Backbone:
């Protein structure tokens, strides 16, 4: 009886782990390094699985910024009240492959000389790619 219960619990844990791994998409579908400057339209929201915010660029286009999960975004210094609506920021990250979507998987948000690196490793890679491309 104990052995059957142990096998069941182990199988359930394995299934949950596999489901979580498949559900988490990582950086796939975002393959072009991009830098966008704009003003905050919607401040940082940490209520979902990843932090989010929106900015409006100089052409009036609203961009959706997908940040890191809430604990990581907060450790980077970004909280719901860090960047007020209307604040000018620059987002660095990888653009969604569907160019009809104005969405960035964001590695860094910069404002007034402060870098909020929600994904430090990717931030370094994105800025290096932009630098080598002359951006």
Residues:
């Amino acid at each position: 009886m104990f052995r059957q219960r142990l096998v069941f619990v182990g199988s359930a844990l394995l299934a949950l782990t596999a489901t979580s791994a498949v559900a988490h998409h990582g950086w796939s579908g975002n393959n072009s390094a991009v830098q966008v400057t704009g003003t905050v339209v919607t401040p940082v929201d940490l209520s979902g699985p990843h932090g989010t915010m929106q900015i409006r660029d100089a052409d009036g286009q609203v961009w959706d910024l997908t940040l890191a999960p809430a604990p990581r975004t907060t450790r980077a210094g970004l909280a719901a009240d860090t960047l007020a609506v209307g604040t000018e920021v620059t987002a660095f990250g990888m653009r969604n492959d569907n160019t009809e979507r104005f969405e960035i998987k964001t590695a860094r948000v910069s404002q007034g000389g402060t870098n909020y690196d929600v994904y430090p490793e990717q931030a370094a890679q994105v800025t290096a790619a932009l630098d080598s491309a002359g951006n």
